[in-house]
Amino acid sequence: MGCSIQANIHSSETKARLETLVNSSKGDSAKLEQLHRHIDELQKGIAVRSISPEARNQLQTLLNLPEDAWSTIVQERILNSLAFDGMRGRFEAVHDAHYKTFEWIFESHVDKNDHPGRSGSESFKDWLAFGHDIFHISGKLGSGKSTLMKFLYEHGKTKEQLETWAGKLQLKKLFFHCIF
After folding, report:
1. pLDDT tens digits, residue range 99-151?
2. Which residue, among 81, 66, 73, has the nearest Cα to 170 in the 3D structure?
3. How many whole angstroms separate alpha carbon 97 and alpha carbon 148?
4. Which of 38, 41, 20 lies closest to 30, judged by CA?
5. What angle is formed at CA 151 by the lines to CA 146 and CA 152, rounded to 5 degrees?
6. 122 with 141: CB under 8 angstroms?
7. Terminal CA-to-CA distance of the chain, rounded, Å?
8. How far apart are CA 159 and CA 173, in angstroms?
9. pLDDT tens per residue, range 72-88
10. Is the CB of residue 138 less than 8 Å from the CB of residue 145?
11. Where are the domains of the chain?
């Protein structure tokens, strides 16, 4: 008889604990389901127009992201928001220059006799590395301005000089076409 009383006591204690566990898991289940929905929404991407500094700090803390990683994410989001179908169309339509055609632009010296229309004395190479004003390139229709821009965009010397200018800042490439 002693065994059956003890078994009933243990079984009623176990039953009470199980009921408590089941009841608490019902609330946890709803919370877990809501959390899954939020994760799904985040994975699909949510358009956020703006975010308060407090929310940004909370997200950064929650995701345990260093400041430079957060900045990279923000920069990529901005660049992706500017993207559109066919945005590389003009770039791809511009013919590639012969590999030596525009090498003169990276010369360190500027001879006004060679470039009579040139108003300044700063070379393009120096301007890329140390300049702060606009380097204006103009010419007649079909003279090769877009081809020159594509050449500069793709040339390794352009990136080298711009990295000198940028210092610790990260460079992003952009090719655009303007008609005035």
Report:
1. 788 888 888 765 655 555 555 567 888 888 888 888 888 899 989 888 898 89
2. 73
3. 7
4. 38
5. 100
6. no
7. 102
8. 9
9. 878 888 888 888 888 77
10. yes
11. 1-46, 47-83, 87-166
